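JOB MANIFEST
job_type = single_chain_structure
chain_count = 1
residues = 60
[input]
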Amino acid sequence: MSINDEREKERAEDKKLIDEWLAKGNKITVYPYGARSEEVEYTSGMYAKRKKKGDKKTKK
C-alpha cells in the first residue's frame, strides 16, 4: 500500500464515522471568526512564575 492509499482509506473511515454521527441527530456548530464557545479567564502567561506551596504571607 502506498501512502496515498492509506490516506484515502483513513478519509473514507472518517467520512463514515462523521455520517453516522450526523445521522444520530447531532449537529456541527460553526462559529464566526474570533468567537469562543465559552469564556475562559487566564490568570497567568506561559512564562509566569508559580507560587510556592508554603509562600503564604499573613498580616498581623
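[summary]
The chain has a mean pLDDT of 82.
Helices lie at 3-23.
exit_status = 0
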